[in-house]
């Protein structure tokens, strides 16, 4: 017994030493390209596995299926957002199937493009370990995986902001016409992702004006070429805004403007403090790895090189400008909207330091990042999947696909025609458009609270269906009133229960309203409420 224990210790120590040597060899090759590529591909693979396990009993977030629904028609905007996210979703589904895993992969590919672009910027200022440290520090907070999972107007900025920043940096440094065009085009695409990107573009302008090389930059053709290229890309969207009454701005004013002066100041201060806390996570980790003297940190901050000084000014602008707008105009400004700009601070913090992190600490950081991903996949994901069987997600997406399957079954009992239009609860209507094999159109006028206007869509000859939660009195009342305008409408209630590997969990009730297509002499009568009710059942989710 006394001889066995030292043998185990020696063997364990040798195993750890081998792992550390392997990680060190991997880090040594960081400037050979394959190290960064392997890290990003492994990141996508690990978190893809996490999503597949953790959400085995849950469907896509409403924002994601809304993004797909908006992309079904190639428009230059929607009532809520500019069009880039919808275009990307449409292009993606031209290649990949319309499934949960496909959109989870899209979310992670978008994050991977962002991380790749961050590395393009980092290599302008650092080589070796620091390139890897920047990416590892960004992979620790839940930005490029959990935040990225909801592929929406916020998540699409994870890739567009680094790309726009890289192109602007190269344009500022070279004044080359090609980089100027790239800067204008990528900035325009950031704006087409979300209007919040105006803070990034404004930060570009202010940073350039405050930079000591501003005369050389503005004395060249680069800023004017970039502006012209950006306007050319944005022109169709600007025309669309003029023709449609600037619907996204009306939506933003209606839903995100109107705070009192005191509440606006609190919102602005909260935004700045929250962003400081988020940036502080990688910042403190870097300081713990390097342990520099405060005087050296201050000296490095005051003696940044030209490019890093530009990035630093941009980074502060992306925090201060939103806070200033929030305080001035009384707008919402949740920290969630600023997460895509964290990379700017991390690049400045790491690349602006005149000192290196010890290799052992870089190995530790890599090991911790890998361990977190492994723990998430093997422990957290199964526990999350089991937990959500008993405590469903707030959005109700544990029930999206099975509820739509039951709605589709009820429709088939009432009509042999494809389901063309769907309404009801907002999330359930988007879910029906996505998960139904007929992929009906999401009809805005049939989604409450718009239903009280008794929309003309209620009399559509193709018929329509709606889904409401049984506790949503407003939705049920509105859909019932709309259905009453059509003859032969059917109302059916049903209950779903979550189920995973034989374990039964929470239940949720639904009310479906079916308005079959208009009757013509060549078609048999639509099913009556008695017909549908007689064939209804109590399904369970799988």
Beta content comes to 5-15%
- Sketch the topology as an H/E string, one letter per element: HHHHHHHHHHHHHHHHHHHEHEEHEEH
**Roughly what is the average pLDDT, rounded to an integer?**
89
What's the total count of β strands?
Answer: 5
Structure description:
With 542 residues, the chain is of the alpha/beta class. Helices cover 63% and strands 8% of the residues. It has a five-stranded mixed beta sheet with strand order 2-1-3-5-4, with helices on both faces. The model is unreliable at 1-12 and 519-542 (pLDDT under 50).
Please outline the helices and strands:
Layout: H1 4-28, H2 34-54, H3 62-70, H4 84-93, H5 100-122, H6 129-139, H7 143-149, H8 157-174, H9 177-193, H10 198-210, H11 214-218, H12 222-244, H13 247-256, H14 261-290, H15 294-302, H16 306-329, H17 342-351, H18 359-390, H19 400-414, E1 421-424, H20 426-435, E2 441-447, E3 464-469, H21 473-483, E4 490-500, E5 503-515, H22 529-535
Parallel strand pairs: 1-2, 1-3
Antiparallel strand pairs: 3-5, 4-5
Helix pairs in contact: 1-18, 2-5, 2-18, 3-4, 3-20, 5-6, 5-7, 5-8, 6-17, 6-18, 8-9, 9-12, 10-16, 14-16, 14-17, 16-17, 19-20
């Amino acid at each position: 017994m006394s001889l066995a224990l030292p043998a185990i210790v020696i063997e364990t120590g040798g195993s750890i030493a081998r792992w550390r040597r392997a990680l060190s060899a991997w880090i040594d090759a960081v400037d050979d390209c394959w190290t960064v590529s392997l890290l990003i591909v492994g990141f996508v693979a690990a978190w893809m596995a996490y999503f597949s396990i953790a959400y085995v009993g849950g469907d896509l977030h409403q924002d994601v299926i809304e993004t797909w629904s908006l992309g079904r028609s190639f428009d230059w905007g929607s009532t809520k957002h500019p069009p880039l996210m919808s275009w990307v979703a449409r292009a993606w589904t031209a290649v990949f199937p319309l499934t949960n895993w496909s959109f989870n992969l899209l979310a992670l590919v978008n994050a991977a493009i962002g991380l790749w672009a961050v590395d393009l910027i980092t290599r302008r200022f650092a080589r070796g370990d620091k390139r890897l440290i920047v990416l590892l520090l960004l992979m620790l907070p839940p930005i490029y995986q959990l935040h990225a999972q909801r592929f929406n107007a916020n998540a699409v900025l994870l890739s567009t902001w680094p790309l726009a920043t890289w192109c602007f940096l190269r344009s500022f440094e070279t004044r080359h016409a090609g980089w100027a065009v790239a800067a204008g085009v990528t900035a325009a695409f950031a704006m087409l992702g979300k209007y919040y990107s105006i803070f990034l573009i404004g930060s570009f302008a202010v940073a350039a004006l405050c930079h000591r090389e501003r005369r050389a930059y503005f004395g060249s053709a680069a800023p004017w070429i970039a502006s012209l290229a950006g306007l050319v890309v944005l022109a169709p969207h600007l025309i669309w805004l003029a023709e449609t009454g600037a619907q996204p701005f009306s939506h933003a004013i209606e839903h995100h403007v109107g705070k009192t002066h005191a509440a606006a100041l609190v919102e602005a201060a909260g935004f700045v403090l929250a962003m400081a806390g988020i940036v502080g996570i990688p910042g403190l980790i870097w300081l713990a790895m390097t342990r520099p003297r405060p005087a050296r940190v201050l000296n490095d901050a005051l003696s940044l090189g030209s490019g890093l000084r530009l990035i630093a000014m941009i980074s502060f602008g992306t925090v201060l400008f939103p806070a200033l707008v929030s305080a001035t105009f009384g707008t919402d400004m949740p920290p969630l909207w600023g997460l895509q700009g964290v990379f700017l601070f991390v690049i400045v913090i790491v690349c602006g330091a005149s000192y290196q992190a010890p290799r052992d600490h870089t190995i530790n950081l890599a090991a911790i990042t890998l361990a977190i991903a492994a723990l998430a996949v093997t422990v957290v994901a199964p526990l999350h999947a089991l937990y959500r069987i008993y405590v469903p997600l707030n959005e109700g997406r544990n029930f999206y696909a099975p509820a739509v399957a039951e709605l589709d079954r009820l429709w088939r009992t009432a009509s042999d025609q494809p389901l063309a239009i769907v309404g009801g609860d907002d999330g359930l209507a988007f879910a029906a458009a996505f998960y139904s094999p007929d992929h009906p159109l999401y009809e805005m006028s049939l989604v409450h609270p718009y239903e009280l206007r008794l929309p003309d869509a209620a009399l559509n000859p193709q018929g329509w269906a709606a889904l409401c939660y049984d506790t949503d009195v407003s939705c049920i009342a509105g859909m019932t009133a709309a259905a009453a305008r059509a003859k032969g409408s059917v109302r059916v209630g049903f209950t779903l229960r979550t189920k995973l590997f034989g374990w039964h969990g929470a239940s949720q009730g639904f009310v479906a309203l079916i308005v079959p297509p208009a009757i013509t002499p060549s078609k048999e009568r639509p099913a009556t409420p008695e017909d549908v009710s007689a064939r209804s059942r109590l399904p369970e989710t799988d």
